[in-house]
Write a structure and sequence with these properties.
- This protein has a five-stranded mixed β-barrel with strand order 1-3-4-6-5.
- The protein has about 230 residues and is α+β, with helices and mostly antiparallel strands.
- The two termini are about 20 Å apart.
- It folds into two domains: about 80 residues; about 110 residues, OB fold (Dihydrolipoamide Acetyltransferase, E2P) (Beta Barrel).
- It is built from three helices and six strands, in the order H-E-E-E-E-E-H-E-H.
Length: about 230
């Protein structure tokens, strides 16, 4: 009897652990969905003027509107890739406003396209403040001399363009800029893999249950065969 009880307890314990992990991931999924919903609501809220002392945590994704002139210094080119389009660059320029010079993410051009002329005269930018986290362990260092950037490192960009380390990602520029497609802030880059994790844990629980049942069946077979003889 003991040879059945020990593997049965071991099997039930393993199933309980795997199911609890899957349940925890489902709870995390609901939390992440709520978080993404809050971020999307914040992104699409009515725009306000640039804050005097923005906070990277409290003001992330803050919708803002600013009027100023785009500096005609050559924009910084940040290498990115767009689905169904391919490789291209984000163009980062300096925007001179009443609140000072800030970084402006104007949008996307293809790698093969020439950099469009700098907008002349005053423009009104509607967009969001952002402190992007583009860099990971495999991200190369920015090629400042060659003007090829692999991450939007705000401090480094601000030093090159002589601005505050404050980035406005354009959602709309008025008058519109020909040849540049805005890449507004959204939640697409925020991972939400909790459903896949949950399905993995639940699948492992099912496999564990099947293996436990099979082991108990194999353990019982010799006795059954012995009785039959």
């Amino acid at each position: 009897m003991l040879r059945y009880i020990v593997p049965l307890i071991f099997g039930l314990a393993g199933i309980a652990v795997l199911v609890s992990l899957g349940t925890w991931q489902m709870q995390r999924l609901e939390w992440k969905r709520g978080l993404l919903s809050d971020i999307e609501a914040r992104i699409s809220a009515p725009a306000i003027s640039l804050p005097d002392d923005p906070d990277p945590r409290a003001d992330r994704y803050l919708p803002v509107q600013a009027t100023g002139q785009v500096d005609d210094t050559a924009p910084l080119r940040v290498l990115v890739s767009q689905k169904q389009i391919g490789a291209g660059y984000r163009l980062i320029s300096a925007l001179e406003t009443d609140q000072g010079r800030v970084l402006l993410d104007r949008g996307f051009i293809r790698v093969a396209d020439a950099i469009p002329p700098t907008p002349q005269g005053a423009v009104t930018v509607t967009g969001n403040l952002h402190w992007p986290d583009d860099r990971n362990d495999s991200t190369p260092d920015n090629d400042v001399a060659g003007n090829t950037w692999f991450a939007r490192d705000l401090d480094q960009m601000a030093q090159v363009l002589d601005t505050q380390p404050l980035l406005v990602v354009a959602r709309q520029i008025t008058p519109p800029e020909t040849g540049v497609t805005p890449l507004p802030v959204d939640t697409a880059g925020i991972p939400n893999d909790h459903l896949e994790y949950a399905m993995t844990w639940f699948s492992l629980a099912v496999i564990w249950a099947v293996m436990t049942g099979y082991f108990l069946w194999r353990t019982r077979r010799p006795n059954t065969q012995a009785k039959a003889q």
